[in-house]
Amino acid sequence: MSTAADFLGLAERIAREAGEMLLAERPARPEVLATKSSSTDVVTALDRASEELIRARIKEVRPDDAILGEEGGVTGEGRVRWVVDPIDGTVNFLYGVPEWAVSIAVEVDGEIVAGVVNIVPRGEVFTAARGGGAWLAGERLRCNSGVPLDQALIATGFGYEPGRRAVQAEVLAHVLPRVRDIRRSGSAASDLCALAAGRVDGYYERGPQEWDYAAGGLVAAEAGARLGGLHGKPCNPGLTLCAAPGLFEELHDLLAPLDPERDA
Length: 264
What we know:
The chain is of the alpha+beta class. The chain contains 7 helices and 15 strands.
Protein backbone atom coordinates (compact mmCIF):
# COMPACT_ATOMS: atom_id res chain seq x y z
CA MET A 1 0.00 0.00 0.00
CA SER A 2 1.29 3.44 -0.88
CA THR A 3 1.96 5.94 1.91
CA ALA A 4 0.17 9.24 2.38
CA ALA A 5 3.27 10.96 1.01
CA ASP A 6 3.13 8.80 -2.12
CA PHE A 7 -0.51 9.69 -2.67
CA LEU A 8 0.21 13.36 -2.04
CA GLY A 9 3.02 13.45 -4.57
CA LEU A 10 0.86 11.96 -7.29
CA ALA A 11 -2.12 14.16 -6.45
CA GLU A 12 0.03 17.28 -6.55
CA ARG A 13 1.53 16.41 -9.94
CA ILE A 14 -1.93 15.80 -11.39
CA ALA A 15 -3.44 18.95 -9.85
CA ARG A 16 -0.61 21.05 -11.27
CA GLU A 17 -1.00 19.52 -14.74
CA ALA A 18 -4.77 20.10 -14.71
CA GLY A 19 -4.21 23.70 -13.63
CA GLU A 20 -1.73 24.31 -16.43
CA MET A 21 -4.19 22.88 -18.94
CA LEU A 22 -7.01 25.09 -17.67
CA LEU A 23 -4.89 28.23 -17.86
CA ALA A 24 -3.73 27.38 -21.37
CA GLU A 25 -7.17 26.44 -22.70
CA ARG A 26 -9.43 28.96 -20.97
CA PRO A 27 -10.99 31.32 -23.55
CA ALA A 28 -11.77 34.95 -22.78
CA ARG A 29 -15.29 33.89 -21.81
CA PRO A 30 -15.82 30.14 -21.36
CA GLU A 31 -19.04 28.74 -22.75
CA VAL A 32 -21.65 27.33 -20.39
CA LEU A 33 -22.09 23.73 -21.45
CA ALA A 34 -24.87 22.73 -19.03
CA THR A 35 -26.56 23.60 -15.74
CA LYS A 36 -27.15 21.40 -12.71
CA SER A 37 -29.24 22.29 -9.66
CA SER A 38 -30.44 25.61 -11.12
CA SER A 39 -29.85 27.95 -14.05
CA THR A 40 -27.03 29.61 -12.08
CA ASP A 41 -25.23 26.32 -11.27
CA VAL A 42 -23.10 25.99 -14.39
CA VAL A 43 -20.74 23.50 -16.02
CA THR A 44 -18.22 24.46 -18.69
CA ALA A 45 -16.51 22.22 -21.21
CA LEU A 46 -13.29 22.73 -19.29
CA ASP A 47 -14.83 21.36 -16.06
CA ARG A 48 -15.31 18.12 -17.94
CA ALA A 49 -11.95 18.27 -19.72
CA SER A 50 -10.16 18.83 -16.42
CA GLU A 51 -11.88 15.89 -14.76
CA GLU A 52 -11.17 13.66 -17.76
CA LEU A 53 -7.48 14.56 -17.57
CA ILE A 54 -7.36 13.91 -13.81
CA ARG A 55 -9.14 10.56 -14.13
CA ALA A 56 -6.82 9.48 -16.95
CA ARG A 57 -3.69 10.35 -14.97
CA ILE A 58 -4.92 8.49 -11.88
CA LYS A 59 -5.80 5.42 -13.93
CA GLU A 60 -2.39 5.38 -15.61
CA VAL A 61 -0.72 4.84 -12.24
CA ARG A 62 -3.47 3.29 -10.09
CA PRO A 63 -5.99 1.57 -12.38
CA ASP A 64 -7.80 -0.24 -9.56
CA ASP A 65 -8.64 2.79 -7.43
CA ALA A 66 -12.13 4.27 -7.16
CA ILE A 67 -12.74 7.87 -8.20
CA LEU A 68 -15.48 10.26 -7.09
CA GLY A 69 -15.62 13.30 -9.35
CA GLU A 70 -18.06 16.20 -9.37
CA GLU A 71 -18.81 15.79 -13.05
CA GLY A 72 -18.42 12.04 -13.57
CA GLY A 73 -19.73 10.59 -10.32
CA VAL A 74 -18.27 7.41 -8.82
CA THR A 75 -16.31 4.87 -10.83
CA GLY A 76 -14.64 1.78 -9.43
CA GLU A 77 -14.52 0.50 -5.87
CA GLY A 78 -11.91 -0.46 -3.33
CA ARG A 79 -9.97 0.72 -0.28
CA VAL A 80 -8.57 3.76 -2.09
CA ARG A 81 -10.84 6.45 -3.47
CA TRP A 82 -9.84 9.73 -5.12
CA VAL A 83 -12.17 12.70 -4.53
CA VAL A 84 -11.94 15.23 -7.35
CA ASP A 85 -13.31 18.69 -8.03
CA PRO A 86 -11.94 19.62 -11.46
CA ILE A 87 -12.81 23.32 -11.02
CA ASP A 88 -14.03 24.47 -7.63
CA GLY A 89 -15.48 27.91 -8.25
CA THR A 90 -16.79 27.44 -11.78
CA VAL A 91 -18.71 30.74 -11.76
CA ASN A 92 -15.47 32.53 -10.86
CA PHE A 93 -13.75 30.64 -13.68
CA LEU A 94 -16.53 31.67 -16.06
CA TYR A 95 -16.19 35.37 -15.22
CA GLY A 96 -12.42 35.51 -14.88
CA VAL A 97 -12.47 36.07 -11.11
CA PRO A 98 -9.10 34.73 -9.90
CA GLU A 99 -10.50 32.48 -7.18
CA TRP A 100 -10.94 28.96 -8.52
CA ALA A 101 -9.10 25.75 -7.82
CA VAL A 102 -8.36 22.17 -8.80
CA SER A 103 -9.02 20.04 -5.72
CA ILE A 104 -7.85 16.42 -5.35
CA ALA A 105 -8.02 14.30 -2.19
CA VAL A 106 -7.18 10.65 -1.53
CA GLU A 107 -9.25 8.56 0.85
CA VAL A 108 -8.07 5.23 2.25
CA ASP A 109 -10.55 3.05 4.15
CA GLY A 110 -12.86 6.03 4.56
CA GLU A 111 -10.22 8.49 5.85
CA ILE A 112 -8.78 11.37 3.84
CA VAL A 113 -4.99 10.90 3.94
CA ALA A 114 -3.78 13.40 1.32
CA GLY A 115 -5.13 16.58 -0.22
CA VAL A 116 -4.06 19.16 -2.78
CA VAL A 117 -5.79 22.44 -3.63
CA ASN A 118 -4.25 24.25 -6.59
CA ILE A 119 -5.60 27.81 -6.65
CA VAL A 120 -4.54 28.19 -10.23
CA PRO A 121 -4.87 31.95 -10.96
CA ARG A 122 -2.77 32.77 -7.88
CA GLY A 123 -0.20 30.06 -8.46
CA GLU A 124 -0.77 28.74 -4.92
CA VAL A 125 -0.69 24.99 -4.30
CA PHE A 126 -1.80 23.96 -0.81
CA THR A 127 -0.89 20.43 0.28
CA ALA A 128 -1.49 18.21 3.30
CA ALA A 129 -0.85 14.62 4.30
CA ARG A 130 -2.49 13.06 7.34
CA GLY A 131 -0.19 13.69 10.30
CA GLY A 132 2.30 15.61 8.17
CA GLY A 133 1.00 19.15 8.43
CA ALA A 134 -0.36 21.61 5.87
CA TRP A 135 1.99 23.43 3.54
CA LEU A 136 2.18 26.26 1.02
CA ALA A 137 5.38 27.08 -0.89
CA GLY A 138 7.54 25.29 1.67
CA GLU A 139 5.96 27.04 4.65
CA ARG A 140 4.04 25.08 7.25
CA LEU A 141 0.61 26.58 7.87
CA ARG A 142 -1.14 27.26 11.17
CA CYS A 143 -4.67 28.59 11.46
CA ASN A 144 -5.38 31.58 13.69
CA SER A 145 -6.11 30.62 17.28
CA GLY A 146 -7.49 32.46 20.28
CA VAL A 147 -9.77 34.66 18.19
CA PRO A 148 -13.13 35.44 19.86
CA LEU A 149 -16.25 35.30 17.75
CA ASP A 150 -16.83 39.06 17.75
CA GLN A 151 -13.34 39.60 16.26
CA ALA A 152 -13.47 36.73 13.77
CA LEU A 153 -13.36 37.12 10.00
CA ILE A 154 -15.73 34.43 8.73
CA ALA A 155 -15.88 32.93 5.25
CA THR A 156 -19.08 31.50 3.85
CA GLY A 157 -20.80 30.66 0.59
CA PHE A 158 -24.25 30.39 -0.91
CA GLY A 159 -26.18 27.74 -2.78
CA TYR A 160 -27.82 28.05 -6.16
CA GLU A 161 -31.48 27.32 -5.43
CA PRO A 162 -33.61 30.36 -4.49
CA GLY A 163 -35.13 28.67 -1.44
CA ARG A 164 -31.74 27.80 -0.04
CA ARG A 165 -30.40 31.28 -0.69
CA ALA A 166 -33.33 32.84 1.16
CA VAL A 167 -32.52 30.85 4.31
CA GLN A 168 -28.81 31.53 3.93
CA ALA A 169 -29.58 35.25 3.80
CA GLU A 170 -31.58 34.95 7.04
CA VAL A 171 -28.71 33.14 8.73
CA LEU A 172 -26.16 35.64 7.44
CA ALA A 173 -28.23 38.56 8.76
CA HIS A 174 -28.00 37.01 12.22
CA VAL A 175 -24.30 36.18 12.00
CA LEU A 176 -22.96 39.41 10.46
CA PRO A 177 -23.57 41.72 13.45
CA ARG A 178 -21.82 39.24 15.76
CA VAL A 179 -18.50 38.83 13.90
CA ARG A 180 -15.76 41.10 12.58
CA ASP A 181 -16.91 40.66 8.97
CA ILE A 182 -17.86 38.15 6.29
CA ARG A 183 -15.94 37.05 3.22
CA ARG A 184 -17.36 35.13 0.24
CA SER A 185 -14.79 33.83 -2.27
CA GLY A 186 -17.01 31.51 -4.32
CA SER A 187 -14.83 28.43 -3.69
CA ALA A 188 -15.16 26.24 -0.61
CA ALA A 189 -11.73 24.70 -1.22
CA SER A 190 -10.18 28.17 -1.37
CA ASP A 191 -12.00 29.24 1.80
CA LEU A 192 -10.67 26.26 3.75
CA CYS A 193 -7.13 26.90 2.56
CA ALA A 194 -7.49 30.58 3.45
CA LEU A 195 -8.45 29.49 6.95
CA ALA A 196 -5.38 27.24 7.13
CA ALA A 197 -3.19 30.17 6.09
CA GLY A 198 -4.72 32.59 8.63
CA ARG A 199 -6.41 34.75 6.00
CA VAL A 200 -9.79 34.12 7.62
CA ASP A 201 -10.61 32.83 11.10
CA GLY A 202 -13.62 30.59 10.46
CA TYR A 203 -15.83 29.10 7.78
CA TYR A 204 -19.36 27.78 7.56
CA GLU A 205 -21.53 26.83 4.61
CA ARG A 206 -24.72 24.94 3.81
CA GLY A 207 -24.40 22.72 0.76
CA PRO A 208 -20.75 21.81 0.04
CA GLN A 209 -20.30 18.31 -1.29
CA GLU A 210 -17.47 15.93 -0.46
CA TRP A 211 -15.42 17.02 -3.47
CA ASP A 212 -15.68 20.63 -2.27
CA TYR A 213 -14.23 20.06 1.19
CA ALA A 214 -12.23 16.80 1.08
CA ALA A 215 -8.82 18.25 0.18
CA GLY A 216 -9.29 21.73 1.67
CA GLY A 217 -10.69 20.23 4.85
CA LEU A 218 -7.56 18.16 5.36
CA VAL A 219 -5.39 21.22 4.73
CA ALA A 220 -7.35 23.14 7.38
CA ALA A 221 -7.30 20.25 9.86
CA GLU A 222 -3.56 19.75 9.46
CA ALA A 223 -3.15 23.49 10.11
CA GLY A 224 -4.82 23.01 13.50
CA ALA A 225 -8.47 23.71 12.71
CA ARG A 226 -11.45 21.68 13.79
CA LEU A 227 -13.70 20.52 10.96
CA GLY A 228 -17.22 19.18 11.42
CA GLY A 229 -20.96 19.64 11.20
CA LEU A 230 -23.64 20.54 13.70
CA HIS A 231 -24.20 18.64 16.95
CA GLY A 232 -21.10 16.47 16.66
CA LYS A 233 -21.73 15.26 13.14
CA PRO A 234 -18.89 15.12 10.62
CA CYS A 235 -18.79 17.78 7.93
CA ASN A 236 -21.57 17.18 5.44
CA PRO A 237 -23.72 18.98 2.85
CA GLY A 238 -26.19 19.97 5.58
CA LEU A 239 -23.62 22.26 7.13
CA THR A 240 -19.84 22.31 7.23
CA LEU A 241 -18.01 24.29 9.92
CA CYS A 242 -14.32 24.95 10.34
CA ALA A 243 -12.30 27.06 12.78
CA ALA A 244 -9.69 26.73 15.49
CA PRO A 245 -10.91 25.01 18.67
CA GLY A 246 -12.74 27.55 20.79
CA LEU A 247 -13.95 29.62 17.87
CA PHE A 248 -15.41 26.47 16.33
CA GLU A 249 -17.64 26.00 19.37
CA GLU A 250 -18.65 29.67 19.48
CA LEU A 251 -19.56 29.66 15.80
CA HIS A 252 -21.41 26.36 16.21
CA ASP A 253 -23.46 27.71 19.09
CA LEU A 254 -24.31 30.85 17.13
CA LEU A 255 -25.48 28.87 14.10
CA ALA A 256 -27.24 25.87 15.65
CA PRO A 257 -30.37 27.71 16.96
CA LEU A 258 -30.86 29.26 13.49
CA ASP A 259 -31.61 25.85 11.93
CA PRO A 260 -29.21 26.59 9.05
CA GLU A 261 -29.62 23.16 7.44
CA ARG A 262 -33.14 23.93 6.25
CA ASP A 263 -34.28 25.24 2.88
CA ALA A 264 -37.24 27.54 2.34
